[in-house]
Amino acid sequence: MEPSITTTRSIVRYSLEGAKEVEDTIASEYALTIKINGSELMTMVCTPDYIEDLAVGYLVSEGIIKRYSDIKNMRVDHKQGFIHINSDRLNPLYAKLQQKRYLTSCCGGSRQGFVFAQDALNTQKIKKQSVQLKPEDCFFYMNQLQNSADIFKQTGGVHNTALCNEDGMMLSRMDIGRHNALDKIYGYCLRHELSLEGTFLLFSGRISSEILLKAARIGCEIVLSKSAPTERAIELAEELGITTVGFIRNQSFNVYTWPERIG
């Protein structure tokens, strides 16, 4: 049985009118351990939906496997919190990677990731500019992301992201972890062989360097966020040819890199 993505709890809510006991909706927190060929790779704290997509997106974006077809079989044990994956086409550096984990800047340090100094060099630069957005498009798509964020409206405890192309929003995902939401998007695209040409990304949270690299590996030309990018993310976006747009709120926004794609 799949775990629930939300739960309810009786709380005391205070306001200027006083206090009252109410039922509140809370985002669930689920510990998922990825096991490859019987060995534990890592444990991430996530929202328990689209678990297969999450695992596939993580493994490919981190370079542990090259493509979805590298996985021979995959099985989720919801009760124990494991996803069992078998593959005979792992990155040759896999054994070394297991010894070089470190905490990323993900929310609360909920996952340990494999991030390399040469990641930017190994990530292909996006040279094409097939995506062009008008300023009003940036506001429109960000409003669309926020309006579709039902679990966030209920709990206030998740991040939201969406993949778009010129026809509109292709799919959206949410998770308590920013990285997880993006891996769910990427994993779904890989498993269903969706075209990633001419895509851009909507994001509710901070654009960190890890998020920027994941967007680059997907092939997104633009990243739109209601929050801020970090200095390293801006540097990487400049190097990799990605347009970064932040602070999309109150009828204004900032374009940090490659402004040619906006307006």
TrEMBL record:
<keyword id="KW-0963">Cytoplasm</keyword>
<feature type="active site" description="Cysteine persulfide intermediate">
    <location>
        <position position="107"/>
    </location>
</feature>
<comment type="similarity">
    <text>Belongs to the FdhD family.</text>
</comment>
<dbReference type="Pfam" id="PF02634">
    <property type="entry name" value="FdhD-NarQ"/>
</dbReference>
<dbReference type="InterPro" id="IPR016193">
    <property type="entry name" value="Cytidine_deaminase-like"/>
</dbReference>
<protein>
    <recommendedName>
        <fullName>Sulfur carrier protein FdhD</fullName>
    </recommendedName>
</protein>
<comment type="function">
    <text>Required for formate dehydrogenase (FDH) activity. Acts as a sulfur carrier protein that transfers sulfur from IscS to the molybdenum cofactor prior to its insertion into FDH.</text>
</comment>
<dbReference type="InterPro" id="IPR003786">
    <property type="entry name" value="FdhD"/>
</dbReference>
<keyword id="KW-0501">Molybdenum cofactor biosynthesis</keyword>
